[in-house]
Amino acid sequence: MYRLQLLTSIFLTLLTLTASADISVSAIFNPPRVAMGDKSQYVVEIKETDNTRQPQIERVTGLPIPQSGGLELSNGRTSTSQQTSIINGAAEYSVTQKLIIDAKPPRIGTFTIPSYVFEYKGENYRVPAATLETVERPADAGPTTDELIFLKTNTPEHLYVGQTTPIELKLYISEEVRLTGLNSFDRSADGFTISDLPDSKETVEIVKGRRYRVLNWPLSITPIQTGQQDLNFQFTVSASVPSQSNRRDPFGGRGFGSSLFDDLFGQNERFTVYTEPTQIDVRALPSEDQPHSFSGAIGDFSMQVSTDRDQTQTGEPIMLSVEISGKGNFDRISGPTIPATDDWRNYDPESQFLPHSPDNTLRGTKRFDYVMIPNQSGNIEIPEIRFAYFDAEAQRYTELSSPTIPIEVSPSDIPTIAPATSHLPSPATTTTAQPLQKELSMEEALLTLDYRPKHSYRLDTTAATESIYWIINAAIAIALSCAALLLRHRRRLRDDNSYAAHYKAKQELRAVSKSAQQAADADHFYANAQNAVRLATSCRSQQNYRTANIDELTQALKQANVDDTIIELTQELFKTADAQRFAGTRSTSSLSSAKNQLERILKAL
Predict the structure, then answer these.
(1) Is-contact 493 499, C-beta < 8 A?
(2) In a 3-state reduction of DSSP, which class is residue 328?
(3) How many Cα neighbours within 13 Å face the side chain of 396?
(4) What are the tens digits of pLDDT across the range 256-314?
(5) Is 549 left (phi over 0), alpha (psi -120 to 50) or beta?
(6) Top-level class of domain 498-604
(7) Residues spanned by CATH 2.60.40 within the chain?
(8) Which one, of 45, 130, 50, lies nearest residue 94 by Cα?
(9) DSSP states of 296-322 as a string?
């Protein structure tokens, strides 16, 4: 009996080994020979073959390439295919995974990526060496891909910390190219805050004799760190480039997998276009001769100060308005400080910005409205107001000042309130009537700007009227409390950059999460899901992770002591999303389960 079990075990083991999948690995350049200025593709192919069932793919996300031989490698992506063949009743199943990387040679010559070993399904496999030959470009050769579609921006050489400046991002598409889609936008700008990407405007330009359709995006950048700061942008686009195979092969032969139809209509491909590597020298603002009234304004400004009237009464507020006009970083301009004086009480101002045009927020007028309440009667003055800014072009500080504003304040005509005789302890007892005075909060002062009491009436109260009186006062108190909370929220949004960023991230998170849950297809779901996780991480950590990759998010979640299970779910979600987005691979899991997975992650964050 024991021998029979042993023989059965050996037989099953041999059968499993015989039926196990055969895995082969190859590497080529496609095409293997290009003209100077053209790109090739470094392709690593992993093929699994099995005669019993369809092999399961293990997604490869990176290759340990030891050296590129000087080649510029970029835009890595994957593609998969599967095949079933039946010959004489015997079935054979195969699946192929291709890892594709764009390779651009820097000069004429031969370039070799040597053999190396990588791990796949727990086993080590060797990738064979591959060689690319680059020859001199023929005089009659067609334009390169980089000449047909490219990205440019006009960045300055240097800026000051906090100096907001406009730039323009331009995508040039030759009229020979048919653009079919803008798939993604990314930026490398840790040392800057950058405005959101607006809708593009289309123009036409002639560059080196070639006509281009140009998509323009106006942006504004503000440096937040000193030193040499990187600023790079990239778009992933889908485009159809005619005669792509002939342009790649300097000798006129078609590339691998091309056909006559490709020559006529072109192949629809995905490209990643980059701006040229850019560094901006960010300088610190000079501390010498910096006025006390300087609070961060950089640009060129003028100031106008006015009041809504030049007469008032003691205790009655007036409105003081300060308007800052010109061009510069209005988002960093706060209201000028009014010098403290015994003659006035004042409160933090309400602000409003009016741009000169919707497309240009660097030019306009920012208005600050202060509530001013006189403490005494007489001819008193609103003190001098100062505002300073730094002129980056002239490299100097400029301080603006307003003259004092005389205000005629008369004694208050609010009638006094005498105590009711029915409550006097004795007819002989007399009291001195006192004016009704109350220290007004900012919200109460705003509500009383246009209020002028004319008469005072004495009311006989009953139980019913007293109840109504208290209900009305309670409603007014609730309304004032709500107004105070709203004003406090607005002030924090204006003055506290971290609070404003956190609030904006929470608002964006709600919208993006809703879009992800309502998405009807996987492409829209995973794009919104990744943004939702980034925004949730930003809210959790109080830092900006809007453009973070999964490694940066993982580190941030670990620092925030997020459960390892949630981190693993996040990594799985991003892995599936990247495969869906860049490799065109469809997820095997249902969209509803992916939405449940996202909801679980967001609840944990």
Answers:
(1) yes
(2) strand
(3) 3
(4) 444 444 444 456 778 788 898 889 999 999 999 999 999 999 999 999 999 999 999 99
(5) beta
(6) mainly alpha
(7) 21-135, 145-282, 295-410
(8) 50
(9) EEEEEEEEEEEES-SEEETT--EEEEE
Just give the CATH number of 145-282.
2.60.40
Query: What confidence score (pLDDT) does residue 3 get?
Result: 55
Contact criterion met (CB below 8 Å) for 322 and 419: no
CA angle 433, 439, 445 (to 5 degrees): 120
Q: Which amino acid is at 277?
A: P
Give the up-direction half-sphere exposure of residue 454: CA atoms within 13 A in the CB hemisphere.
Answer: 1
Residues carrying CATH 1.20.120, the chain:
498-604
For 170-214, the DSSP string reads: EEEEETT-EEEEEEEEEEE-TTEEEPPP---EEEEEEETTEEEEE
Q: What whole-number distance in Å separates Cα of residue 520 and Cα of residue 531?
A: 17
Please, are residues 160 and 390 in contact by the beta-carbon 8 Å criterion? yes
Count the alpha carbons within 13 Å of 275 in the hemisphere toward its beta carbon.
22
Question: How far, in Å, CA of 72 to CA of 562, rounded?
Answer: 38
* DSSP codes joined into one string, 123-180: EEEEEPPEEEEEEPPPTTPPPPHHHHEEEEE---SEEETT--EEEEEEEEEETT-EEE
pLDDT in the model for residue 373 = 93
Report the 10 Å Cβ neighbour count for 252: 9
Distance between CA 598 and CA 536 in Å, rounded? 11
> Helix (H, G, I), strand (E, B), or coil: what is residue 351?
strand
CA 335 – CA 348 distance, rounded (Å): 8
**Which residue's entry shows tokens 């007036």?**
318
State the DSSP H helix or E strand holding residue 73, giving kind and residue range, or none if neither. Answer: strand 72-87
Residue 106, preceding peptide bond in cis (omega within 30° of 0):
no
Gap between the terminal Cα atoms of the chain: 59
State which residues of the chain have pLDDT below 70: 1-20, 140, 242-267, 414-466, 497-498, 580-589
**pTM greater than 0.70 (yes/no):** no
At residue 115, the 3 state secondary structure works out as coil
The verdict on domain 21-135 having CATH code 2.60.40 is yes
For residue 168, give the nearest of 206, 219, 92, 233 by alpha carbon: 219
Rg (CA), the chain: 36
pLDDT in tens, 186-223: 888 889 999 988 999 999 999 988 899 999 999 999 99
Domain 295-410: which CATH number of 1.10.10, 2.60.40, 2.40.128, 3.30.310: 2.60.40
Give Dmax over CA atoms of the chain in angstroms. 127
CA separation (Å) from 487 to 31, 38, 337, 347, 441?
A: 65, 60, 19, 12, 12
Nearest of 139, 118, 135, 128 to residue 31 by alpha carbon: 135
> Of 285, 288, 360, nearest to 326 (Cα)?
360
Cα gap 84→54, rounded to integer Å: 8
Tokens of 500: 């404003």
Nearest Cα neighbor of 126 from 22, 17, 24, 20 is 24
Amino acid occupying residue 246? N
The Cα–Cα gap between 204 and 212 comes to: 6
DSSP 10: H
